[in-house]
Amino acid sequence: MTDTAVAVANGAGSTGNSGPVWTIVLAGGGGTRFGGPKQFFDLGGEPLLAHPVAAARPASDGIVVVVPAALIGHWSPPDGVRMVAGGATRAESVRAGLAAVPADAGVIVVTDAAHPLATPALYQRVIDEVRAGADAAVPGLPLTEVVKEIRSTVLGSPPDDTPRLVTGASLPRETHRLVQTPHAFRADLLRSVHAEAREAVEDSAMVAAAGGLVVVVPGEPANIHVTTPDELAMARLLLTHVRSEGEPNEFGTGRIHAVR
């Protein structure tokens, strides 16, 4: 039995880890698609990465921010927030963050600078699910558009870059979600899956592959993923609206479903 399998088995039926909560904010990208390091672009008078740090603080006992080594001096974090250099891949950056998290942490939250508008309530929501016994918790939004597969070429046709629909059924909306960050994890299990040096787009996939229980909670529509300048402009509009209207920016509570 692997260390990860032991960690999953030891956590079965638990009531959640009671140790401190630590949050890792991933801000290690180079901004290739964006045209620059987007984590340092302005959003409401602060760089993008400052927003998840502020949202995570009420629910966290400590925070680690992971940035490219060459950009560590570009932002001065608040008192008590640790900043470390990331790696060449997302998984390596998570491991750099894990190395800075104390060994007694019970719950570890992983988020990213590209989701700057998540509210403190969303952080608390995923943490509460892990405290209640889940191995991990992620926020998800129902699909509101049809999702189809496309390809740039059609068999038997001259190759070009024009996207074309592939015939077949659309993804069923009832059984799919748009998954956001932050994600919360049992600290021991997250460390175990990373100790096996796995690579994945995000950590909940690693936990699920190891047999862990990953709970999905309601996400927040305003918690958009900023990957382009247009999405940054949208985030600025959303933030301006929330501030001007004094809205709480809360979008539901409770559990949607759990998958193993």
Automatic annotation (TrEMBL):
A molecular-function term among this protein's GO annotations: 2-C-methyl-D-erythritol 4-phosphate cytidylyltransferase activity
Gene3D superfamilies, alphabetized: Spore Coat Polysaccharide Biosynthesis Protein SpsA, Chain A
Superkingdom of source: Bacteria
Keyword Nucleotidyltransferase: yes
Entry keyword set: Nucleotidyltransferase, Transferase
Protein name (database record): 4-diphosphocytidyl-2C-methyl-D-erythritol synthase
